């Protein structure tokens, strides 16, 4: 049954137990009632948006909301978002992503950011620009999640050590490395050894020198060769089974033509 500002406490409790955001229709008095608000946020964390300003400062209420949905931190008071101890606790409940809702001051706090990226590397996205250029912080992030490299400063995306560690963790991280490193043949060869998945992120210049695929970086020719040889053997067995020499000769021409086409592409 829908509730409104005249609904009793029992009616509102029953409503928010079914749908936490029903709190929005409750009276100002009941939105400041800790029992009612706790019932709402325990069922639906984002119901914190409709709690009184006083209860948005209440650690018990906000933590209850975060346990249900860490994104409810968006509705917490400015005081709690700037409380280092509280945010550090919230990190553990949100896989590090509580950093998104922390105050600007805490996004510049190295201890806070270090804890966030050690739990979830991509939390680096929410760090201050200064800490995105901090090698220690960025290394911690990419060693946890290689693709966190995309949030690092331009300078650190050109760091061999940082990119190497990122690629070691996830070959796809090479996509976010500087063009200078992607065009460095020695570095790319090392990256390929660390992760075959990184191969596709080499620079166009390095992948295609003088209009030809670089043999030092590509396995495509080898794969094509194996496929075509396998098909040739299968065709030959089929032809011999039928004892048809002309069939065998034609198969050879067809397979050679396909091999040539594959090599050109």
Gross morphology: elongated
User: What class, by secondary structure content?
Assistant: mainly alpha
Whole-Å distance between the termini? 67 Å
Strand content: under 5%
Task: State the major sheet.
Answer: 2 strands, antiparallel
Helix content: 40-55%
Low-pLDDT runs? 218-230, 243-249, 252-256, 259-265
Rg is 30 Å
What number of structural domains do the residues give?
Answer: 3
Plain-language structure description:
With 265 residues, this protein is mainly alpha-helical. The protein has 3 domains: 79 residues; 123 residues, no CATH class; 47 residues. Strand 1 and strand 2 form a beta hairpin. Helix 5 runs parallel beside helix 6, helix 8 runs parallel beside helix 9 and helix 13 runs antiparallel to helix 14. The longest helix is centred in the C-terminal third of the chain and has 23 residues. The radius of gyration is 30 Å and the shape is elongated. The C terminus is likely disordered.
What is the gist of this entry?
With 265 residues, this protein is an all-alpha fold. It is built from 14 helices and two strands.
Protein topology:
Layout: H1 9-18, H2 34-43, H3 59-68, H4 78-81, H5 84-93, H6 110-119, H7 129-132, H8 135-144, H9 160-169, H10 179-182, H11 185-194, H12 204-207, E1 208-209, E2 212-213, H13 220-242, H14 245-264
Antiparallel strand pairs: 1-2
Helix pairs in contact: 1-2, 2-3, 5-6, 6-8, 8-9, 9-11, 13-14
């Amino acid at each position: 049954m829908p509730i409104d500002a005249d609904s009793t406490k029992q009616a509102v409790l029953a409503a928010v137990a079914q749908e936490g955001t029903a709190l929005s229709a409750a009276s100002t008095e009941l939105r400041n009632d800790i029992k009612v608000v706790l019932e709402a946020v325990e069922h639906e964390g984002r119901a914190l948006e409709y709690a009184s300003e006083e209860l948005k400062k209440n650690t018990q209420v906000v933590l209850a909301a975060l346990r249900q949905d860490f994104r409810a931190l968006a509705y917490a008071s400015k005081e709690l978002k700037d409380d280092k101890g509280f945010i550090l606790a919230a990190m553990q409940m949100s896989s590090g992503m509580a950093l998104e809702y922390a105050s600007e001051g805490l996004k510049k706090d190295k201890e806070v950011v270090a804890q966030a990226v050690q739990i979830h590397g991509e939390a680096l996205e929410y760090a201050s620009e200064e800490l995105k250029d901090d090698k220690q912080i960025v290394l911690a992030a990419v060693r946890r999640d290689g693709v966190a490299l995309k949030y690092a400063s331009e300078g650190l995306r050109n760091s061999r050590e940082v990119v190497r560690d990122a690629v070691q963790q996830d070959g796809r991280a090479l996509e976010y490395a500087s063009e200078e490193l992607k065009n460095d043949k020695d570095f790319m060869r090392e990256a390929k050894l660390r992760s075959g998945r990184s191969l596709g992120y080499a620079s166009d210049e390095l992948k295609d020198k003088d209009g030809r695929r670089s043999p030092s970086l590509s396995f495509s020719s080898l794969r094509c060769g194996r496929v075509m040889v396998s098909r040739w053997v299968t065709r030959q067995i089929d032809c011999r089974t039928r004892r048809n020499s002309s069939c065998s000769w034609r198969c050879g021409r067809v397979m050679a033509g396909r091999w040539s086409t594959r090599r050109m592409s």
